[in-house]
Design a protein that fits this description.
Length: 200
């Protein structure tokens, strides 16, 4: 009996008597879906290797012009899908383990250091072909900016490793089958452009 009385009292508290006239009911609280918060802007350390342009403000300016307000960024280790067997074989090779895919050297063989080569990612697309290879040639004059040259654009380079030895720039693609395809980047002085030639 006590249980029934308790239940009745609770019911009486929460259910208003219709004879007492209209009761003011608070309008339901409207819950607005929270807008998706964009990820915080990556720090400079996540976009550019530390010290890369530290003593070369002209190269930094050239990079910012090329990046088009963030459209392009330097590819990072996590952007690639190098086959596990290749990673195990070259686990101590910095070209495989470096955080950023870039190298330096005298790639156009004009005697001026420091040309820089980058694998870049187009941030406006999620397609596999969102990679590119670009070289910044060191300028001839102190007041000039490095000249930017596309070698490859809109390609799938997710299984490729960029490497260099002084003036030799190479791009090696690794396959799950164990096959490797090496592309050597050459500078054409007459045309003033780079090309990627498959090695035999």
């Amino acid at each position: 009996m006590k249980i029934l009385c308790g239940c009745f009292l609770l019911w009486a508290v929460f259910v208003p008597d219709g004879c007492n006239g209209p009761t003011k009911v608070a309008p339901p609280v409207q819950t607005q879906s929270s807008p998706q918060v964009s990820q915080s802007t990556p720090s400079t350390a996540d976009l550019i290797p530390t010290g890369l342009f530290e003593e070369d403000p002209r190269a930094l300016e050239a990079w910012h012009r090329f990046a088009e307000g963030g459209r392009y960024r330097i590819a990072r280790r996590e952007d690639f899908q190098i086959p596990e067997a290749a990673m195990k074989e070259h686990g101590s090779d910095p070209f495989f383990t470096n955080k950023f895919a870039y190298v330096g050297g005298d790639f156009n063989r004009d005697g001026r250091q420091f040309d820089r080569a980058f694998i870049v990612v187009d941030t406006t697309t999620t397609r596999n072909e969102g990679f590119g290879l670009v070289v910044f040639n060191a300028p001839a004059g102190e007041k000039s900016l490095p000249a930017v040259h596309w070698v490859l654009k809109a390609r799938d380079l997710s299984k490729s490793v960029l490497s260099a030895a002084t003036d030799v720039l190479s791009l090696t693609e690794y396959y799950e089958s164990g096959i490797q395809k090496v592309c050597n980047v050459r500078w054409d002085k007459k045309r003033e452009e780079y090309s990627c030639e498959q090695s035999r």
